[in-house]
């Protein structure tokens, strides 16, 4: 038997498929991630078969073996818990509700698969709530689809949790005395924290199959970062106090002065993480490195350097042609303020262009 064409089902599911006299046309139906602002981005979980060990190139084999052993033996037992949970207070008595957004067939399948996974994991449950936020699908730059909950309207009426995130400058100051670093990346970090029973109704979302609410802290909710930072600080408080660990949301930085001290501290952190049932993404974690990138900065030999990506972004920035581009350029270069002496003086000609009623003119003075 012969065929004029064979089309794999995975291809047809990438978008809306139209068959006409010109052949088969597949229209992409997903938004790009840049087009959606402040959404809850919830990745489809994929568990790798093997762990790629990210370890410093000059680490002696004896310490490499210990790191590998610690990873292979890691099990999130969860024998301890905290009293930290998500509590949502609302400033308005009027419920926030949305109808489900229309999705193409391929999008519905992605949402269906993700919701089924969350139900299995105990992350969400079916519900009846007067609150509801819509589900959307976006594509990241690498083309991967993501299931998102759009909490933007709800966030406007939520009383803000004022628990502070660590100041990046304070963290960087504490890095400068260390020589060996490890970073632990948590998997689906917010899902480690329970949502209070009375607050779950506010997290409700709707899709083509029904209505659900989160049992865990959802991504995209304005208070989720503060709640999670409180949670992770509670778990590692003794190590934070001793200057061993610096957690920033789902990134846990371990400081040490030598490989020997580094592996001992990694083992302590993993032991505590296991007790509290923390799921770790070891493929994105790094161990016993003398040079790391953390919070958009490079740390090496007790010194802080600008991120390579940030430097490239400035070098590749086109000459500004309007005020909006001046704003963007100053926002980008402001990152380098601590690395460039007299930055304000150097940037003053550009800052003057932003003054009210000043005519835009980009000349030699501004180029300097």
Automatic annotation (TrEMBL):
PROSITE patterns the UniProt entry points to: RT_POL
Domain Reverse transcriptase: 119-299
Pfam families: RVT_1 (PF00078)
Listed InterPro entries: DNA/RNA_pol_sf, Rev_trsase/Diguanyl_cyclase, RT_dom, Viral_Replic_Matur_Polypro
GO annotation terms (biological process): DNA biosynthetic process
Cited PANTHER family: POL PROTEIN, RIBONUCLEASE H
Protein's name in the database: Retrovirus-related Pol polyprotein from transposon 297
Protein source organism: Araneus ventricosus
The organism's taxonomic lineage, starting at the top: Eukaryota, Metazoa, Ecdysozoa, Arthropoda, Chelicerata
């Amino acid at each position: 038997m012969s065929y004029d064409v064979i089309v794999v089902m995975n291809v047809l599911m990438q978008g809306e498929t139209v068959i006409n006299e010109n052949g088969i046309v597949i229209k992409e139906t997903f938004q790009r991630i840049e087009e959606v602002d402040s959404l809850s981005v919830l990745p489809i979980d994929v568990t790798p078969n093997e762990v790629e060990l990210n370890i410093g190139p000059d680490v002696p084999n004896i310490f490499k073996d210990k790191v590998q052993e610690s990873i292979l033996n890691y099990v999130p037992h969860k024998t301890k818990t905290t009293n930290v949970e998500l509590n949502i207070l609302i400033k308005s008595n009027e419920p926030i509700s949305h109808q489900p957004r229309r999705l193409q067939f391929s999008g519905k399948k992605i949402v269906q698969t993700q919701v089924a996974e969350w139900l299995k994991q105990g992350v969400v449950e079916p519900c009846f709530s007067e609150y509801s936020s819509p589900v959307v699908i976006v594509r990241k730059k690498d083309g991967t689809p993501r299931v998102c909950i759009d909490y933007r309207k709800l966030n406007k009426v939520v009383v803000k949790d004022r628990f502070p995130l660590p100041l990046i400058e304070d963290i960087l100051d504490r890095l400068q005395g260390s020589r060996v670093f490890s970073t632990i990346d948590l998997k689906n970090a917010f899902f480690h924290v329970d949502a209070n029973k009375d607050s779950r109704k506010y997290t409700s979302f709707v899709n083509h199959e029904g209505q659900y609410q989160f049992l865990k802290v959802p991504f995209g909710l304005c208070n989720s970062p503060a709640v999670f930072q409180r949670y992770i600080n509670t778990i590692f408080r003794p190590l934070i106090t001793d200057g061993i660990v610096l957690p920033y949301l789902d990134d846990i930085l371990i400081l040490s002065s030598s490989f020997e001290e580094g592996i001992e501290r990694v083992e302590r952190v993993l032991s505590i993480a296991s007790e509290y049932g923390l799921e770790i993404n070891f493929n994105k974690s790094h161990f016993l490195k003398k040079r790391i990138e953390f919070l958009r900065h490079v740390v090496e030999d007790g010194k802080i350097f600008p991120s390579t990506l940030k430097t490239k972004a400035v070098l590749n920035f086109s000459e500004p042609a309007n005020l909006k581009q001046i704003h963007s350029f100053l926002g980008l270069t402001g990152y380098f303020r601590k690395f460039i002496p007299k930055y304000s003086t150097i940037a003053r000609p550009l800052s003057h262009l932003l003054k009210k009623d000043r005519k835009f003119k980009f000349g030699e003075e501004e180029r300097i």
